[in-house]
Each structure stands twice: as C-alpha cells, then as structure tokens.
Amino acid sequence: MARQLRGGFASRLGFILAAAGSAIGLGNIWKFPYITGENGGGAFLVIYLVTVFVIGFSIMMAELAIGRAAERNPVGAFSRLKGGAWVGVGYMGVLTGVIILSFYSVVGGWTIAYALKAISGQLAGGDAAALGGTFGGFIGDTAEPLVYHAIFMTLTCVVVGVGIGGGIERAAKVLMPLLLFLIVVLIVQVLSLPGAEAGISFFFSPDFSKVNGDTFIAAVGHAFFSLSLGMGTMLTYGSYLSRKVWLPTAAATVTVLDTLIAILAGMIILPAVFAFGIDPGAGPGLTFITLPAIFNQMPGGDWVAFAFFILLAVAALTSAVSLLEVVVAYFVDEKQVLRTRATMAAGVIIFLLGIPSSLSFGLLSDTTFFGTMTFFDVMDYLSSNILLPVGGILVAIFAAWIAWPRIIEEASGWEKSTFPLAGLWRIVLGVVAPVAVLLVLYHGL
Ligand code: PHE
Q1: Residue nearest to ligand 1 atom 10, measured at CA
Q2: Closest ligand 1 atom, CA of 26?
Q3: Which of 217-231, 326-340, 402-416, 421-435 is predicted least confidently?
Q4: CA 336, 384, 280: angle at the middle one, nearest 5?
C-alpha cells in the first residue's frame, strides 16, 4: 500500500540504472582523476579500490536493506526501525544532501557551460595552457557560473518534481550507456597521444612512499562520495525497490559499474595530463582543461566536446537528482508537504547555499578558512571526508548490531532465501568498517 502511494521503480533494470546513475557522476569523471593526481596516483587507486569493495559494497547493501525494510526516507527509516537517537543519522543525511548538492550544482553548471562553449567554438584551437586560462577566467567570473548553477539546479528540480519512475528512471536508461560509449572512444583517442604512457604508469604503478594520512582520508571519503553512501541516498532508492530484487547482486552491479567508470575516466584524464605536460596535482580544473585539449586534436572535436559535456551534465544530473530526492522524500514522507512544493523550496535554499561556493574561485578566492581552504573546499571536505564516512559507519553499526534480524531477512530476499556471505558481511559492517574508518578519520584529522 505504502509502496503504491509513494511510487517506485518499474523494473529491476530501471533501479540498477538509476542507482548507478546516482553513483556515477562528477565524482567519477571530474573528482576522481584530479584527487588521484593530487594524491600520487597508483597508491591512491589501490587504497580506493580496497575501500570500495570491502567497505563500500557492504554499506551499500546495508543502506538498500534498511531503505527497503522501512519504505521510508532516511529520517523515517531510522524512526520506523528503531527510533531514539538513531533518527539523528537520518537528519544528518538530509543535511549532508543539502551541503553536497550546493557545490555539486556549481560544478554541474560548469559542465553545461562547457557544452555551450564547445559548440560555439570558444574552446577550439587552444592548447592546454590557453584552455587553463579559459577555465580560470570562466570560474573566476562572478555572474556567468552563477547563471549556470541556477540552470543546473532548475533542471534537477524539474526531474525530482516529476517523481521517481517518470523522471529519474527514464533519463538514466537512455543516457548512461551513451556516456560509457563516448568514454571508450576517448580512451582510444588519448592512448594514441605521444607521452600518454607516463600517465598510465602514474595511474597503475603504486608508489607507496607517497602515502600519508591525507591519502587515506581522501580515498575513504571519495569511496563514500562516489558510491553515494553515508547520507541515505541508496537507502532512499532502496525504499522504492521491489522485494523481487536480490540485494547482493544489485549492490555489486552498482559498485562495479561506478568503479569501472572512475577507472576509465582516469585512463582518459591522467594520460592526457602527461601528454600535455600539465601538473597532475592541478586540482579541480584538471578535467575541464585536459578534455577540451583532447577534443581539439580530434576531427569534429567541437561536436565531440559538445556531446561529451552534455552527457557529463546528464550524469551529474542523475546524481544531483538523487541528492535532492533524499531531502524531498523527507519532507514528503514526514511533513506531508506536496512533492512539487518541497522540491521548489529545497531547490531555492540549496541554490543560495551554493553561491559562496561558486564565488570561491573569484570574488571569494581570498576568503579562506582553516588555513588555505575556500568556502567551496570546506563544503567539499566537510561533506565528503567527514559527514559521509561518519554517516556510513553509523549505518553499518545500525545494520549489524541494532536491526540485524530485519536487515539479513531483507538482504536474503523473499525469493532466494539465503545470502551465503551473511557472516562475513556482518563482520565487515559491525567491526571492520567502523574500526577502519574511525582510524583513518582519527589519524587524518
Ligand atoms: N556519487 C555521486 C558522484 O560520484 C555524488 C553523490 C554523492 C550522489 C552522495 C549522491 C550522494 O558524482
């Protein structure tokens, strides 16, 4: 009954693509390559992969199980399954969603701007240095990036306003495969550039002398960010999922797809970085500088660039939608607010919170906190490297120690009656993940 009133995914494939659509986004294509570059390459990749497959996968299953068991947004789910202080984990998730979306939408706006710049020829012809100047000039401007932030936020609101099956599911189904196709084309193109091999060995041969506490924090934080874990996104999507779907394969599919796209993105950006002589630690501009430089070497490059940035904008949109969905589901379920009204109100607030993040590259670039961090950096660090990991271990502890009987029943499913790795899963959730993540947070901070 509740399921029918709240709407739900029409098919298993639709759910997988929407969940993968949430996971795959700017995190994979924009953030992963540049933080891999900042953190020394291969060693970071190894730590990241271990975190993703041991801790990330386990917590993804836990979130899906909690969501489907409760059929609620994060706040409603914790109060239904347990109540008390645990409800706070749900509120923390809603707040984290607001924070992440505020700066995510700024970068999402950059992708739309870049699609339009590509098609109007503004990126054509320049080498990496000139493109670096173009990018710096664009994000340093006051008004232009804010206009695109507004456009991106509006699109996000439109999709969320339409509701789960109609908006999110349909968009994800068509566009995600197209993005994958274009990524593969670009890898082939990049690997033919002279000097590209240096990027491949930077990416795939780990140098553990470069590892320190910050490397671990960045890897763990990004594992949560990239898989959309620790704030109830997967929990909320799980709440719309039919009981016919077996959670272990669903979670594994999403985890593998997300990781695949991140590695493929790394295989485009990092070789290009070396081929064009850019500093791999150059930060958030990396993708926006290397990609246009690659397109400029291709026949019909403007069109390829246009297509790529549009698809990247769509990938960002399916992630942004999942962030906003957590906030909106909370107001719809708990406060009985109309979906459209909740969407509009949340959209405006998040847009406003994003303004200082957008200005962090221009007007406010000298306004720093904790030493050298801009407002944008603080929002990103706080949400990815602190709130998501903390939220994630609370979810893990909740699943393993507080609601285990209900969780294992949900993970085993009604049709196939067992999950063979249940014991191991519980140990990872109940012990390994909390201890490992706490150690990393403790040392890193
Ligand atoms: N996983 C998304 C990405 O990689 C971002 C995201 C984080 C989405 C947390 C939802 C929740 O771009």
Answers
A1: 228
A2: 12
A3: 402-416
A4: 145
How do residues 153-176 score in pLDDT, each as one tens digit?
Answer: 999 999 888 865 665 567 667 777
Handedness of CA 389, 391, 395, 397 (dihedral sign): positive
Q: What's the mean pLDDT when you consider all of the chain? A: 92
Nearest CA to ligand 1 atom 4: 27
- pTM for this predicted structure: 0.95
Q: Is the dihedral of CA 166, 168, 171, 172 positive or negative?
A: negative
Distance of CA 148 to the CA centre of its chain: 19
Question: Which residues form ligand 1's pocket by a CB distance below 6 Å?
Answer: 22-23, 25-28, 100, 225-226, 228, 231, 233, 319, 322-323
Q: How far does the centroid of ligand 1 lie from the alpha carbon of residue 322, in Å?
A: 8
CB atoms closer than 10 angstroms to residue 100: 27
Ligand 1 center–CA 405 separation, angstroms: 29
pLDDT at 394: 98
Those residues with Cβ within 8 angstroms of residue 109's Cβ, 6 or more apart along the chain or in another chain? 145, 146, 147, 148, 149, 150, 151, 152, 153, 358
Closest CA to 175 of 82, 313, 63: 313
Residues 6+ away with beta carbon under 8 Å from 333: 6, 72, 73, 75, 76
For 435, phi then psi, to 5°, come to -65, -50
Q: Give residue 132 CA to ligand 1 midpoint distance, Å.
A: 26
> How much distance in Å is there from the Cα of 415 to the middle of ligand 1?
31
Radius of gyration of the chain (CA): 21
CA 26 to ligand 1 center in whole angstroms: 8
